[in-house]
Amino acid sequence: MIKSDVIIIGAGPVGCVLAERIANNLKLSCHIIEKRNHIAGNCYDKVNSKGLLYHKYGPHYLRFKNKKVFNYLSNFTEWIPGNYIVKSVVKNELYPIPINIETFEKFFKKKFKSKKDLLQFIETKKIHIKNPNNAEDFVLSKLGREMYEAFYKNYTIKQWGRHPKKLSKFITGRLPIRFNKNPYYVNEKYQFMPRYGFTKMFNKMLDNKKIKISLNTDFYKIRDKVFYNKFMIYTGEPDRFFNYKYGKLDWRSLIFKFKNYKKKQIQKCVQYNYPNTFKFTRSVEIKHVTRQKSNYTVISKEFPTNTGDPYYPIMDKKNGKIYKKYENLINNINKKNIYFEGRLAKYKYFNTDEVIENALVLFDKLKKKFKK
Questions:
Q1: Which of 263, 288, 336, 369 could form a disulfide with 270 if both were Cys (CB 3.0 to 4.6 A apart)?
Q2: Domain boundaries of the chain, sorted by first residue
């Protein structure tokens, strides 16, 4: 039997942040139940046989829209600059991604005197679609068919296992289109990496006697033996929590293949995207952002799949309708002091900083309700 003031299902960023806040601020006991053998969720990083810190579940490029989140995490880590650079491999050439003026100039083999000059040129390429309501129409209406075919179409099909026509415009709309020379992958002003890794940062959060963690523990196998005095926080899949009452939600997963090389560096930047016929979507050399000094490097390749741990909610009409039904159940179960938070629980794509910000917002609500 597991009994605590607060039960938290999942030791990812949401679970760690809320456990830290609740234990240190509300002085309540927390018990985290985690099915994996480690904390930190998909942010988990570890040192490999060559002494290199690597991200086990794909790269996490931490950046901040809200300085409050940065200040909060600064209690648990020192930082190194992020400066994330990504390139797209098109016909064996490297192009800046997100698309910027250099991408346009290299792709169309044309120099642009100004932003106005570039915008006038793109206007001739765009396909005028009144209400772009899917991922394909969104790009066609912004950039035209040539860039859609080269940079978006096949990458989207590989990543999601669906044609862009069947996906929400949010999928391709997340990536900015720039009409300047900004080379960085993300727009946020604050771009940092935890100096000693994500896992150490989250470990430090959990350094409190009021926090207990059960690793290698499947909540669903012990559900009837779990009790809370105050409330529960759930960070897993909503359909499973409700025993698939309205059917299963679709998720996209990833298979990672890692390879060590006796070289200081292989890629010119941390990430290469492959919007072509290769089975993998991207290759990552995380050493570019961890800044480790070593004669070795590690490359990971990502192969999207429909099986395995849920990573990405598939944002199409069918899944949107199913989730809406579960959302009604979630709103109802809040009355029993069970709260759903995180990418999985809310069936929505969030960046790591957004996930942490949402957890802090939930904590503020809980604080008002349960403060002794």
A1: 288
A2: 2-81+194-249+313-370, 97-173
> Which residues of the chain fall below pLDDT 50?
none
- Three-state DSSP class for 12? coil
Omega within 30 of 0 (cis) for the link into 275: no
2-81+194-249+313-370: CATH, from 3.90.180.10, 2.60.120.260, 3.40.50.720, 3.20.20.70 = 3.40.50.720
Q: How far apart are CA 66 and CA 352, in angstroms?
A: 12
Instruction: Give residue for tokens 């400066």.
Output: 83
pLDDT value at residue 256: 98
* Structural class in CATH, domain 97-173: mainly alpha
Which pLDDT value is given to residue 266? Answer: 98
| pTM for this predicted structure | 0.95
Instruction: Give CA–CA dist 112/95, Å, rounded.
Output: 17
3, 167, 202, 292, 342 from 248: Cα distances, Å: 30, 18, 31, 42, 18
